[in-house]
Amino acid sequence: MGESEFKKLGFVGLGAMGKPMLVHLANKLPKESRIYVYDVVEDAMNEVCSKYPERVLRASSAKDVAHQADTIITMVPEGSHVRSVYLDPSHGVCSADISNKLLIDCSTIDTATSLEVKEHIEKHFPTASFYDSPVSGGVVGAIKGTIAFFLGCAESDPNIKRLTPLMEMMGKQVIPCGGPSLGLAAKLSNNYLSGVIAIACSEAFDMGMRSGLDPRTLAKVYAAGTAQNAICDRFCPVPHVYPEAPSSGGYKQGFKVQLMRKDFGLAVDMAKRVGSKNVLGEVGLETYDGASKDPNCRDLDSRVVYRYLGGNEDWQPTKNGA
Ligand code: NAD
């Protein structure tokens, strides 16, 4: 990283993901760097500003962040929030003079909104650069600094040498995906695949267990056969097959089912928009929609879809006395 880089950074959105990402930056940036932060929730700002009183400074709006900082990272929930953070005529990033600034949106949103923001910036501030760079790895990954960034640009992009070291302070992998909005397209297609696998995995375990198989045997069979995948291996939806899977801790830690529903819906919309045939999309969306509204599943890890589909969680021989 060059000496002059990242002296004045901005961060908007200090939630479950944004806060730990900011903490990595506060711990790792050169001593003289300052980070200007903004969140609509006052307490979120108070917490980080009091933890790093000299280094993390509170801004009054996204516009104020953009005014103070040269490089701005945003991490908010949905497309409507991204639109307001960037395009709000009185308080948005683009209501400041952002000429020559570097803007990185890490939120998982629809590609159309991301492109709309990028086009607006290109039109009004041709020397500014905007990138989509959604992340994968969850809250635990954000805390550990192991998240992956899917960066919406080519490997030959002129800013890649500035972007990569910054992201490597918050995560362990940066994958340039080819061009604008393609980081998002990659992320949505990944979560679609992961979500479909979790449903298929839940159904496969359930039919095997109802036929009399021990789920640990089934897990060994899948791992040895053509069905091997990370959901069965490390995020097994059936509790107590893999001790560190969220299911084994009551589905408490992990990727919330409502977030899976959101990303799955965005992926299905993207498939429609680009004319991709998508036979599992509607049924998958219906399943995650139902699970995210079910009081027994809401707020829990998305692999709780196994519970939603009626899977037996109380299978352990010791528990059953078998
Ligand atoms: P969150 O709801 O915990 O945090 C979002 C933060 O943005 C909140 O503090 C909220 O107050 C703030 N915010 C909302 N609107 C704002 C505005 N207009 N101006 C300033 N701040 C505003 O959400 P999160 O879990 O941190 O997720 C953020 C993004 O990351 C989402 O797009 C999500 O899909 C994605 N993501 C989440 C996870 C995860 O496991 N939580 C994993 C990967 C990606």
Automatic annotation (TrEMBL):
Cellular component terms (Gene Ontology): mitochondrion
Keywords for this protein: Branched-chain amino acid catabolism, NAD, Oxidoreductase
Domain 3-hydroxyisobutyrate dehydrogenase-like NAD-binding: start-end pairs: 183-307
GO molecular function: 3-hydroxyisobutyrate dehydrogenase activity; NAD binding; NADP binding
Swiss-Prot/TrEMBL catalytic activity: 3-hydroxy-2-methylpropanoate + NAD(+) = 2-methyl-3-oxopropanoate + NADH + H(+)
Catalytic activity, EC: 1.1.1.31
Positions annotated as active site in the UniProt record: 187
Limits of the 6-phosphogluconate dehydrogenase NADP-binding domain: 8-177
A Gene Ontology BP annotation from the UniProt entry: L-valine catabolic process
InterPro entries per record: 6-PGluconate_DH-like_C_sf, 6PGD_dom2, 6PGDH_NADP-bd, HIBADH-like_NADP-bd, HIBADH-related, NAD(P)-bd_dom_sf
Metabolic or biological pathway: Amino-acid degradation; L-valine degradation
Similarity section: Belongs to the HIBADH-related family. 3-hydroxyisobutyrate dehydrogenase subfamily.
Protein name: 3-hydroxyisobutyrate dehydrogenase
